[in-house]
C-alpha cells in the first residue's frame, strides 16, 4: 500500500471539520447515515474541543446542532472499553441535561443522536452497523405504543422513537471493504483513509479536497504525523498485552498438562503409563493454552495472524471463530 494521501477522520474532527467552511463534510456523512438531508448550524462545546497538546487519548468526539434543533454526538474510539455501552448512555444523558434550562417544561428536552465509530469489537454480532431506538411494547398483546394524532402534531414526530435518543454503532474492523452503498463508501474511508474516484456519497468530494495531507501546512503535517504515530504506538502496546497473555497461557498449559500426565501415570501404576501421561498431558495443555489465547485474539487479529502466533492450524482458528459467532 502506498503512502496515505488523506488524513484520518478523527484528526479531521480535531483540526479541520469545526470550521463552518467544512461543515459540508460532516453534513454529507450524517445525511448518508440518517437517510435525510442534514444541515449543521454550529459545532457545540465538547470534550475534544478542549485541545490539549499533552492529550494522548485515543478518543475524539464532536458535538453539533442541526437545523432541526437535534444534537448529534460523533465519536471515534480506538481503545477497547468493556463498559462503552454505559458510557455512551451517560454521554447522551449528560448532553440532554446540559441543553435544557431548569425551569423549562419536559417537552423542550432535545433529541440527541449518538454516532460511534469504533475500531474495536463491541458486543457480539455479525453486522458492522447497529442502530438503537427506544420503543414500548405491550406485555400482553405485544403491540407497540404509538403517538396519538394530537401528540404527533405537538411533537412534530411520527413515532415515540423519534423523540428519544438514537444510537449508532459503526464497527469499522468488521467492515469487509466492499462498498455496497453510499454509506459503505464513508465506512471504507474511515477504515482505509482513502476515497476512490468512483465514490459518489454526499460529502466525500469535499472530504477528499479538505483532508488532503499535501494541503496541510508544514506544522499541521508534523502534528498529524505525531498523532498517527501515537495511534500506532497505542495499538502496538495493546497487541503486546495479548502476546504476553499468550505466553502466560502456554506456560500454564504446560504446567497443567504435566500435572495431568503425572496423575494419569499414577493411576496406571506403570512406568510406561507415567511417561505417556506426561507426554499427552503436555500436548493437551499446550493446545488448551493456545486455544484460550486464540479466542481472546479473535476480535482484534485476522485468522492467519492468530494461526501464526499460536501455532494452531488455520482451520482450527476458523472453527473457533465460527463457534464464537
Task: Using brief descriptors, characterize the structure shown.
325 residues, alpha/beta, 2 domains, six-stranded mixed beta sheet
Give an account of the 3D structure.
It is a single chain. By secondary structure, the chain is an alpha/beta fold. The chain folds into two domains: 9-216, no CATH class; 225-324, no CATH class. The protein has ten helices and six strands, in the order ααβββαββαβαααααα. It has helices spanning 9-15, 23-34, 84-98, 149-155, 182-192, 204-210, 218-268, 271-297, 303-310, 314-324, and strands at 40-44, 59-66, 71-77, 112-118, 129-132, 166-171. The chain has a six-stranded mixed β-sheet with strand order 1-2-3-4-6-5, sandwiched between helices. Helix 7 (218-268) runs antiparallel to helix 8 and helix 9 packs across helix 10 (314-324).
Calculate Rg over CA atoms: 25 Å
pLDDT < 50 stretches: 48-57
Give the number of domains.
2
CA-CA gap between termini:
31 Å
Main pleated-sheet profile? 6 strands, mixed
Globally, the shape reads globular
Strand residue percentage: 5-15%
Strand order of the largest sheet: 1-2-3-4-6-5
Order of helices and strands: HHEEEHEEHEHHHHHH
Q: Indicate the percent of residues in helices.
A: 40-55%
Layout of helices and strands:
Elements (H helix, E strand, L loop, with lengths): L8 H7 L7 H12 L5 E5 L14 E8 L4 E7 L6 H15 L13 E7 L10 E4 L16 H7 L10 E6 L10 H11 L11 H7 L7 H51 L2 H27 L5 H8 L3 H11 L1
Parallel strand pairs: 3-4, 4-6
Antiparallel strand pairs: 1-2, 2-3, 5-6
Helix pairs in contact: 2-6, 7-8, 9-10
